Task: structure prediction
Amino acid sequence: MVRTALIVIDMLNTYEHEDADALVPSVREALPGVEELLRRARACDAPVIYVNDNFGRWRSHHGEILQAALTGRHPDLVKPIAPDDESLFVVKARHSAFYETPLAYLLGQLTVRRVVLCGQVTEQCVLYSALDAHIRHIDVSVAPEAVAHIDADLADAALRMMELNMSARVCSLDALTFNDFDE
Result:
């Protein structure tokens, strides 16, 4: 059986960075898709793992990152997708959710062989996380309506790269499930 986890990338964001104004409209569009994936994953008892940048705050933990995001410029983009008590949390410092984080180990402990990626930014952190999952032989799925971008053209190219170069399943939100399935 293949177990699937939802990975929510960098959605706990203060939006106090250089690209925020370009990013926010796309996050607003992706937010309903992220909410739907969270609802589905939780309904199936699939692991939900938030992987979030610590924004250089090396003494912070997930509660502080969430609180900073909720008091940032756009709490309306954070509150609907905030972690629940069952959610897991991994802090990252670079683009990939896997780079120098315990995510691969955590997925192994949870016997996860497939991840659904959502969040931001498609052409950066989502792309690099998909690549790192692929080189670890973890299947990747991405719904374009649940990822946000800064540059639409680069995001489209990133999704094509995930599909063609990393064997990612890039499909509509409706086509994604979290039920365990046979390989």
In short: The first helix runs from residue 20 to 43. Residues 119 and 147 are 5 Å apart (CA to CA). The mean pLDDT is 93. The two ends are 6 Å apart (CA to CA).
